[in-house]
Write a structure and sequence with these properties.
It contains nine helices and 16 strands. Strands 1, 2, 6, 7, 8, 9, 15 and 16 form an eight-stranded mixed β-sheet that branches. An eight-stranded mixed β-sheet has the order 3-5-4-11-12-13-10-14. It is 30% helix and 28% strand. The chain has a domain at 6-61 and 88-144 and 232-344: 3-Layer(bba) Sandwich (FAD/NAD(P)-binding domain), CATH 3.50.50.
Length: 352
């Protein structure tokens, strides 16, 4: 059936990127379309810098704050002090905190087709002045054919959360090639629970057996799992007039697999560009151009991370451990992390 309602903006996808867009559009008629209730469908490890949570008013979702990062390789453990801490958080609470800062209407329906002015949903078509695709890694614009996936590399992650408190502080990453050849395992403490996961940038790696081996090494067994694709293959930020944000645009970072901060960062910029167009400061074409310029300004850094990812994949564990020891010096790690944040999405103060 046809839905006779017009919106200023329809956002397809109600996770980090889509909610960040909607946060910038208060006072406008905004519709968020998602097949799941907001905050109900966690697929990530849910770790991000504390500054990111503060920027979107979601710091109350924090489960544990981490001031160190620990890298395990070749039987060695190297600790990296973090001047700006990371947090692990409750996905539902984080998303609901973002949603409360929007004026958006939410439909729990499936968005089946998008163009620049209309979204087909399972309830019928909905018209809008602007359409944003924030539907995640499953979003495939028509020009990305299945046989062209090699041009759009991806990572893959699988995680389980167990009801135990991990005693070693910090976020832990394990580079042990007998578990995963081109990737890593992780342990993320979350207060009273702990998340254990495996990530790989090789689509042929079998993640469930690798996760089982990792847990067995720790004397543990897997519970229910969740996971998905790490969308590190950059796509165009616009497709036939539709804004693509977050994993839909391949804005997850190579090497680290960090995608929450970048999804929020680009989502805020996308929302601001659209807000300026709705206010009459820009026309629609200028708003799209402004967003595309902002995204493309980070393409060079993204390509460098893809190169580094290949280097890490072919570096023996003892050499990785040696390089990590050099990088773990406080002045060095501060410089590295500052460069990393600035070139991939910096939050120095709460977004307005």
């Amino acid at each position: 059936m046809a839905v006779d309602i017009d919106y200023d903006v329809v956002v397809v996808g109600g996770s980090f990127a889509g909610l960040a867009v909607a946060m910038q559009l208060r006072g406008r008629r905004v519709l968020i379309v998602d097949q799941y209730p907001i905050g109900s469908h966690q697929i990530s490890a849910c770790g991000t810098p504390l500054t990111t949570a503060r920027a979107v008013g979601a710091q109350a979702s924090t489960l544990e704050t981490h001031n160190t990062l620990a890298l395990h390789a070749a039987g060695k453990t190297i600790h990296f002090p973090l001047k700006d801490p990371y947090i692990t958080f409750d996905y539902r609470a984080f998303c609901q905190a973002m949603l409360r800062q929007t004026d958006a209407e939410v439909w729990q329906v499936r968005g089946t087709a998008l163009d620049a002015r209309q979204v087909e949903t399972s309830n019928g078509p909905v018209d809008a002045r602007f359409v944003v695709n924030a539907s995640g890694w499953r979003a495939h614009p028509k020009e990305i054919a299945p046989d062209n996936r090699q041009a759009h590399p991806a990572g893959y992650g699988l995680e389980t959360e167990l009801p135990l408190r991990w005693q070693d502080p910090g976020l832990h990453f394990y580079f042990i090639k007998q578990w995963v050849r081109n990737g890593y395992a992780w342990i993320f403490p979350c207060g009273g629970t702990t998340r254990f996961g495996i990530g790989s940038f090789n689509r042929n790696d079998q993640l469930r057996p690798a996760l089982d081996r990792f847990l067995s090494h720790l004397g543990l067994k897997s519970a229910q799992t969740h996971g998905g694709v790490l969308a590190i293959g950059r796509r165009q930020p616009l497709h036939e007039g539709v804004f693509l944000v977050g994993d839909a645009a391949g804005q997850c970072l190579p090497v680290t697999g960090e995608g929450i901060r970048t999804a929020i960062f680009h989502g805020l910029h996308c929302g601001r560009a659209i807000a300026r167009a709705l206010a009459g400061d820009l026309n629609a074409s200028q708003a799209r151009h402004l967003y595309a310029l902002q995204v493309r300004s980070m393409d060079r850094f993204h390509r460098r991370l893809l190169t580094l990812q290949t280097i890490v994949a072919h570096t023996p564990e003892p050499l990785l451990a040696a390089a990590a020891r050099v990088c773990a010096r406080p002045s060095t790690i501060d410089w590295i992390m500052t460069k990393y944040w600035v070139h991939s999405g910096w939050f120095a103060a709460p977004a307005t």
